[in-house]
Amino acid sequence: MTTTRGDHPHEDHAPELDAGTTASAAAPGKGVAGPPPTGQNAPRSSPPGDRRVSVMMLSGVLALGLGIAAVTVPVPYVVESPGPTFNTLGQSQGSPVISVTGHETYPAKGNLDLTTVYVDGGPNGPVSVLGAFTAWLDGSKSVHPVEMLYPSGTTKEEADEQSSVAMTSSQENAVASALKELNIPFGQQLQAAGLPDGSPSAGKVENGDIFESINGKPITSLAVVQEELAAGQGAPATLVVQRAGESVTQTITPMNNGAGRYILGVMLKYLFTFPFDVKISLDKVVGPSAGLMFSLGIIDTVTPGDLTGGKHVAGTGTITPDGAVGPIGGIRQKMLGARAGGATVFLAPAENCDEVVGHVPEGLQVLKVENIAEARHAVELAGSGQDTGALPVCASN
Questions:
Q1: Residue ranges of region Disordered (predicted)?
Q2: Smallest Cα–Cα separation from 204: which of 212, 195, 193?
Q3: Taking each helix axis from N to C terminus, what angle separates 129-137 and 48-72, rounded to the nearest 10 degrees?
């Protein structure tokens, strides 16, 4: 500190003094201190042991600070853990999960549970080093790089919107696949919803175009387009689309997507016209993976009897309007959640079998399914009390 001694200010660098010690007075007219004190009043430095303790304490504080930083700093991973299950034949927050108007319905017993997964990290908020490490040690959880679930730069708002759109599409597909399985007619059209860069359809197909026919064949589903392109093996295809109320004919040469499939390079969405209304009410659950269980729930709701025979069945899988069951994420956590919820039978997409083998919870029979017909048959067989041992299961190679 700066003090005034005599006539001239100077910076006092004197060491700390013991209690009761006073500094010497300055000589008259001089800006310097008197002779250094001697004897018991002489200043003393800290003993070596005290310095060691101070250094150790400082090191400990630094180590603690670094440790706190290490466990709280975010890392680029996401953690999946088992979520709750919801009975598609039951209620959610006081309302039926599936309600139908315009068609006769039948009370259904038992459970057809859809399964969920909690996802921490990525756009949902950071995961710390400690959080990722403890999840890695927990057999009920899975840790993945963020890029496996979310494209780089995805915001929470974008992720939420994409998941909500996927859930809406999943519900519509579930209604379509259920009606098709029950041979109930409905209207179905394909509409262009976007063209990626480098699309062979650029300049020929516009957003909002409705696909009418390909090579003279009426387009009643995406399968018609895929089958015709596969048969052509890259040959130009004649596509007729409806645009502003008029039919427009275009010749498009499909491209190989690198996986042996020929595509038009158009993102498509379905436009449905159903003969009756199906409403699915389920708050705070998003994504496409409930499609299979929604479809089974609709089938059980609009047909007499109990599909499950009162048994507790759970499952997961995306669904197409044609009834194909597709793979999903987090199946290990979903199986654990299903068993914790009381399920004894679980329906798994065939394409997820590599993740199922070796991770089936005790007391849960896992059956693999590729389409809604197989899933329905499996549930009916289990519900009637018949032996399900001959049904397809996931097995190691």
A1: 1-52
A2: 195
A3: 70
- If asked whether residues 197 and 130 sit together in one domain, one would say no
pTM over the 0.85 mark: no
Of the residues 141, 204, 311, 334, only one is catalytic, namely 334
Which band of pLDDT confidence, cut at 50, 70 and 90, is reported for residue 225? very high
Residues 266 and 368 in one domain: no
Task: Provide the domain count of the chain.
Answer: 2
Report the C-alpha gap between 196 and 26 in whole angstroms.
Answer: 87
CA distances (Å), origin 252, targets 212, 217, 233, 235, 246: 15, 15, 13, 9, 19
Average pLDDT, rounded, for the chain = 84
**For residue 27, what are the contacts with CB-CB under 8 A and spacing of at least 6?**
6, 34
Whether 334 is catalytic is yes
SS3 state of residue 290: coil
Phi, psi (degrees; rounded to nearest 5) at 299: -60, -45
Q: Which helix (H) or strand (E) holds 52?
A: helix 48-72
Q: Do the domain assignments include residue 376?
A: yes
The confidence score (pLDDT) of residue 63 equals 53
Segments forming the whole domain that contains residue 229: 187-273
Closest CA to 188 of 178, 201, 173, 207: 173
Give per-residue pLDDT as tens, 176-210: 999 999 999 999 999 999 999 999 999 999 999 99
**What integer pLDDT is reported at residue 21 of this predicted model?**
32
Burial of 233 (0-12, 13-18, 19+ CB in 10 A): exposed
Q: Is 295 considered catalytic here?
A: no
Q: Which of 142, 199, 201, 289 is catalytic?
A: 289
Q: How is the chain split among helix, strand and coil, in percent rounded to 5?
A: 30, 30, 40
pLDDT tens-digit series, residues 104-148? 999 888 999 999 999 999 888 888 888 888 988 999 999 999 888
The CATH number of the domain holding residue 223 is 2.30.42.10
> What confidence score (pLDDT) does residue 381 get?
95
